[in-house]
Design a protein that fits this description.
The structure is a single chain. The chain is of the alpha/beta class. The protein has one domain: TIM Barrel (Alpha-Beta Barrel). The chain has 13 helices and twelve strands. It is globular, with a radius of gyration of 19 Å. The protein binds NADP nicotinamide-adenine-dinucleotide phosphate. The site of NADP nicotinamide-adenine-dinucleotide phosphate has 29 residues, from helix 11. One of its GO terms (molecular function) is oxidoreductase activity. Pfam families: Aldo_ket_red (PF00248).
Length: 338
């Protein structure tokens, strides 16, 4: 593995310059089975050495635990990192397994204070609305987020899993630096409406789950058999039953391209995202999640892989063949409202 730092990209027209790949920190505390805290801390440090500066968390990841876990790392490197967190998935005290979407002003005010406290910082660099509550006009939500910017609690605004239309309505209230949506070789529904709107409005696309939640690396084949009880991926239709077997077969062309580059399938998935960004003409910052330093080395090295046109053509049809939705409840996504 080489030690050279990854290139940078601007996080939206008015946003900061960040490493062209960020780090998804969710799995360190939530969703993907047991974690080793020391390995996660080593992953954060290694990522920074390699030029990763955008660190992604949310208040909902482990009910605040992920923000608390990251706080010492952020304190040690405050001037080098761009901290992104999110609000909107409220966890009822009587049932920690539930999530209630809240976009209303009093909730946002309470959520930002709680995140600032847990992160132990004076200001959040990028504050996202995590999910859309259709009962609250998006203009009302973004107006409160804009107040947080004016009050110095937040520097830049982001929206996650919004439609192109919602993004346009939001942008009329305050500039949106980044849209965070699922985007990978397996999940390309946002290319129809969200991506063109983001390009037009000067927002960057922060691509979450760019490794298809690990499936594109081949690290698991069937969530029910390969992953521990409670792993979130066991609830996702495309990773279980017949769908999982059919989708595993779709990785063949990814492996073929990987072999030609002496790379791994995961690296090809990340290189694809970076190159596809050029086709769409907007900055894309994938945020692969990992808890292992060697994997952050592998993932950042993908920023140097250049795919040929033939290789891109081989990868192009994959998304259209994926069996099963990306969430059990698609109303949880922008595609469910488009
Ligand atoms: N806005 C939203 O609604 C939303 C939703 C989901 C996620 N996110 C954010 O996006 C980030 C990334 O998404 P994600 O974690 O869901 O999915 P992902 O990045 O597509 O995949 C993560 C999975 O891949 C594994 N992995 C990573 N690098 C690997 C490698 N080189 N080889 C083999 N396996 C590898 C990880 O395991 P190890 O950790 O064990 O390495 C983990 O299980 C999250 O951390 C979170 O911050 C946002």
């Amino acid at each position: 593995m080489t030690d050279s730092r990854i290139p940078t990209a601007r996080l939206g027209d008015g946003g900061p310059e960040v490493g062209v790949q960020g780090l998804g920190c969710m799995g360190m505390s939530f969703g993907y089975g047991p974690s080793d805290a020391d390995a996660s801390r080593a992953t954060l440090e290694r990522a920074l050495e390699l030029g990763v500066t955008l660190y992604d968390t949310a208040d909902a990841y482990g009910a605040g635990e992920n923000e608390r876990f990251l706080a010492p790392f952020f304190k040690a490197h405050r001037d080098e990192v761009v901290i992104a967190t999110k609000f909107a998935l409220s966890i009822p005290p009587d049932d920690p397994t539930k999530r209630i979407i809240r976009n209303d002003p009093p909730y946002i005010r309470q959520a930002v204070e709680a995140s600032l406290r847990r992160l132990d910082v004076d200001v959040i660099d990028l504050y996202y609305m995590h999910r859309r509550d259709v009962n609250v006009p998006i203009e009302e939500t973004v107006a409160v987020m804009a107040e947080l910017v004016r009050e110095g609690k937040v520097k830049h605004l982001g929206l996650s899993e919004v439609t192109g239309q919602e993004l346009r309505a939001a942008q009329a209230v305050h500039p949106i630096a980044a849209v965070q949506s699922e985007w990978s070789l397996f999940s390309r529904d946002i290319e129809a409406g969200v991506v063109p709107a983001a390009r037009e409005l000067g927002a960057a696309l922060v691509a979450y789950s760019p490794l298809g939640r690990g499936f594109l690396t081949g690290s698991f084949g069937n969530a029910d058999q390969d992953l521990t009880a409670g792993d979130f991926r066991r609830q996702q239709p495309r990773f279980t039953g017949d769908n999982a077997a059919a989708n595993a077969a779709l990785l063949d062309p990814v492996r073929t391209v990987a072999e030609a580059h002496g790379a791994t399938p995961g690296q090809i998935a990340l290189a694809w995202a970076q190159q596809r960004a050029r086709v769409h003409g907007l900055p894309v910052i994938p945020i692969p999640g990992t808890r292992r330093p060697t994997r952050v080395e592998e993932n950042t090295a993908a920023a140097r892989i250049v795919l040929t046109q033939d290789e891109l053509s081989l990868l192009e049809p994959i998304a259209g063949k994926v069996a099963g939705d990306r969430y059990a409840d698609m109303t949880f996504t922008s595609a469910g409202r488009e």
